[in-house]
Amino acid sequence: MRTFYETSRVIDGPATKKPVPDPYYPLPPSELSIYARQKDLTFGDNIYQYDYYSVPGALIFVQQNLTALTAGIIPAVGKNKLRSVFAAIDADDYLLVYAASMAKAASLPGMNERVGNSFANRAEAILHWFSDQADKAFSKVHP
Fold it and tell me: Rounded to whole angstroms, how far apart are CA atoms 25 and 30?
């Protein structure tokens, strides 16, 4: 395992990129869109849009890249060519987590594998985070 995001900040928009405080809601809104500037160790410094949807018993978010992802100087995934979807669904004593990423990667040897591995690792990290949160919540209710 390694660090995915060296830095990650919510920003006011893709044009100005001004950092703003992380949004906080006691109860998730039914819909929310935010922008984030994230620097990761694979694709560098990029801007993403996150669209969140909340329905009873489920939280869904969709990530898309608003800047081209590069591996060093090599373009890996073009602007708006990545979508990742994550859903966490309350299944009583279980938490169902669904993750899928779709990207149009550059046609260079090894690039599809590098992009695929990166997003599979991100999905695994999100799964672990949601699992840890569910375990903490469950242990508070059932000590």
Answer: 11
Q: In this structure, which amino acid lies at residue 109?
A: P
Print the domain residue range for 130: 5-141
Residues facing residue 67 across a β-bridge: none
Q: Are 82 and 100 in contact (CB under 8 A)?
A: no
120 φ/ψ angles, rounded to the nearest 5 degrees: -65, -40
Distance CA 115, CA 73 (A): 15
Q: How many domains does the chain have?
A: 1
Q: Do residues 22 and 11 make contact, with C-beta atoms less than 8 angstroms apart?
A: no
d(Cα 98, Cα 126) in Å, to the nearest integer? Answer: 10
Task: Encode pLDDT of 63-78 as tens digits.
Answer: 999 999 887 787 888 8
pTM above 0.90, yes or no: no
